[in-house]
């Protein structure tokens, strides 16, 4: 059973008025927008889209014929004193038509997500706390902090490489580092059936999503 706190932290994809993905928020923020009639739920089921205001969505969540199907499609539920409501996967803002931001931020979380917590030298996967960032071309040799010069690295490999390039240290890289087309955290989620309903709104050719 998923806890109430976990359900309220569930991730919800936000579309603007033009149906373009603009960001990801947690369930708390999503419900706040829905209750104030600033957004509507977009429910994706077998390729068909339906829209619901908060009251409608509450009714759908409680209807026996929908409840089981929502659970089967990996929906989480939030319980209140009077009713239970499913955490929507996608919501659409009713009065916001700005275009999504395209830039993927260069930060530690996104680099770890891009490399999937895999040391790019030994190839092993590690918990985040056991990983560091390595400059492929060391800063002492003019290497900067960029998508194509920063990789996920375990502590032993970082120590072994030292202030050398991989070639100088005779260490092969798992893959060449590149800048991702969209937020790598989102890319990881898209590989899960839980977030299958996001895929229709996240085409690489058009936009990327920034986590807030």
Index terms:
6-stranded mixed sheet, DNA Binding (I), subunit A, 10 strands, 212 residues, alpha+beta
Please explain how this structure is put together:
With 212 residues, the protein is α+β, with helices and mostly antiparallel strands. It folds into two domains: 4-101 and 184-211, no CATH class; 108-169, DNA Binding (I), subunit A. 27% of the residues lie in helices and 21% in strands. The chain has eight helices and ten strands. A six-stranded mixed β-sheet has the order 4-3-7-1-2-10. Strands 5-6 form a two-stranded antiparallel ribbon. The two termini are 27 Å apart. Mean pLDDT is 84; it is low at 204-212.
Describe the secondary structure blueprint for this structure.
Blueprint: H1 4-8, E1 11-15, E2 21-26, H2 27-35, E3 39-45, E4 48-52, H3 54-62, H4 64-72, E5 77-79, E6 84-86, E7 90-93, H5 108-114, E8 131-135, E9 150-154, H6 155-161, H7 166-169, H8 184-190, E10 210-211
Parallel strand pairs: 1-7, 2-10
Antiparallel strand pairs: 1-2, 3-4, 3-7, 5-6, 8-9
Summarize the structure.
This protein is α+β, with helices and mostly antiparallel strands and 212 residues long. Helices cover 27% and strands 21% of the residues.
